[in-house]
Amino acid sequence: MKRFLFVLLLFLPLLLLLASPVWGTITQDTSTESKASVNGDTEDFSWSHTAGASPEGVVVFVVVETTTADDVIGVTYNSVSMTEITGSPLIKSSGETAAVHAFFLGASIVGGTKTVAVDLDGTSPETFAFAITFDAAADLEINTISDVTCTNPATPDYDLCADAVQSPSETLALGSVTSAVIMGWFFGDGSSAGSTPFGSWEDLQQEADFGPNTCGMYAYETIASDDVGIGWSTGSNTDDAVAIAVSINEVAGGAVVPSHRRAVMN
Fold first, then answer.
1. pTM for the full model?
2. I need a surface site. Which of 10, 47, 132, 133 has the fewest CB within 10 A?
3. Contact at 8 Å (CB) between 57 and 133?
4. Collapsing DSSP states into helix, strand and coil, what is residue 6?
């Protein structure tokens, strides 16, 4: 009996470690782009997003060109309504107008190929949307979002929402919380080659061309707790820009779904 207790005490820390979730294990999964609402199409649209076996969160950005209104009624992932984050949509109502929406779902995510559906109000001009899923050891939540105010003209001249911006950028504070960071953006220049991600933002990037304007979604490569420089390079091009960046983290002490169960949920 004493030997049993000795062995139990010896291995108890290891058993507790194995039974506990490993916080801070959030990783990027896959990203997709919708091309269903272009050329003046104002209809609702959807596309298939193929995630891994056990995603824990999804972020969808919807970028609407030449608008000064909230044209997006909602977004669903696998028929589950997503939450539009606080501060979305960020609407640029001067110069080359546009709106960037950000939607989030951090629990009850199902892996495999699922449908992302965007519900429009029937008046929106050309629209693109982008989805990205994340793996983690637990449910996910929004940590922080970028500044959701627009400046005209840009003050300073690298603001994420302003007229006549060159390589817009700012710093997103993470509050020392280990987080993944993603950004949806619009730029008034018509050449997709004119906008490129910063060196640390090249993972799972998506870019789309409206014709006279461009848009996209970039994901920061490093999952960490340090503040992140957000934005993108426009080379020598100066034009109107609008973007939302968001950081997401695991819910501390939140619901943990064992991997063998997550893989078979439907």
1. 0.85
2. 10
3. yes
4. helix
Q: Identify residue 128 by its one-letter amino acid code.
A: F
- Identity at 224, one-letter amino acid code: A
DSSP 167-223: S-EEEE--TT--BEEEEEEEES-S-GGG-EE-TT--EEEEEEE-SS-EEEEEE-S--
The full 3-state SS of 40-106, as one line of letters, equals CCCCCEEEEEEECCCEEEEEEEEEEECCCCCCEEEEEECCEECEECCCCCEEECCCCCEEEEEEEEC
**How many whole angstroms separate alpha carbon 39 and alpha carbon 183?**
24
DSSP 136-149: -SS-EEEEEE----
* Residue 259 in tokens: 């991997």
Report the chain (266 residues): mean pLDDT per 10 consecutive residues: 48 41 72 68 85 94 93 96 96 93 95 94 85 95 93 76 90 96 92 80 86 92 95 91 96 55 29
Amino acid identity for residue 257 in this structure: V
